[in-house]
Automatic annotation (TrEMBL):
One of its GO terms (cellular component) is mitochondrion. Residues 134-169 are annotated as: Disordered. One of its GO terms (biological process) is cilium assembly. Belongs to the complex I NDUFA12 subunit family. GO terms for molecular function: protein-containing complex binding. Pfam families: NDUFA12 (PF05071). The gene is NDUFAF2. This is NADH:ubiquinone oxidoreductase complex assembly factor 2. It comes from Canis lupus dingo. The lineage of its organism: Eukaryota, Metazoa, Chordata, Craniata, Vertebrata.
């Protein structure tokens, strides 16, 4: 069945004048292609496509970091030109430097907090939820069993809602 899909794809590409051009390969072995804008056999203009052929052919084996962010930006058309290997290496070095600096800052903050018991970073505030504001017992310790009323003539069970809109029933 896979051979039929390949045959149909090859036939479609041959008839549609779709020619993908190899743009680059990343360090994971993924290949990136660009299909320039072209007119099909009916005269319709087909927009440019950017395609990645993953080194891992199975979707199950795909991980989040398998496509570098520079190539992903190119695929999503947020950048016009494909990234160069020098650019990718430079950005990876920057990311590593940031990781090292943040780890160093975290350890320094940890050492300072041991000596002074005062941390540089504020701890999140712990709030205590006592109930919803629309609840009749909001702000009280717990709901009361005795009925509450603002009037002095309150009788429990004396009010009954009407079943319909007609008051004569």
């Amino acid at each position: 069945m896979a051979w039929a899909r390949g045959l149909v794809g090859a036939l479609r590409r041959a008839l549609s004048k779709e020619a993908k051009q190899h743009v680059g390969t990343d360090r994971f072995g993924n290949n990136y292609y660009s299909v320039p804008e072209y007119k099909n056999w009916r005269g319709q203009t087909i927009r440019e496509k950017r395609i990645v052929e993953a080194a891992n052919k199975k979707e199950v084996d795909y991980e989040v970091g398998d496509i570098p962010s520079e190539w992903e930006a190119w695929i999503r058309k947020t950048r016009k030109t494909p990234p160069t290997m020098e650019e990718i290496l430079k950005n990876e070095k920057k990311r590593e430097d940031i990781k090292i600096k943040s780890q160093h800052l975290y350890e320094e903050e940890k050492l300072l907090s041991k000596g002074s018991k005062e941390e540089l970073l504020a701890q999140p505030v712990q709030t205590q939820i006592k109930g919803h504001a629309s609840a009749p017992y909001f702000g009280k310790e717990e709901p009361s069993v005795a009925p509450t009323s603002t009037g002095k003539i309150f009788q429990p069970g004396s009010w009954m809602p009407q079943g319909s809109k007609n008051p004569n029933q």
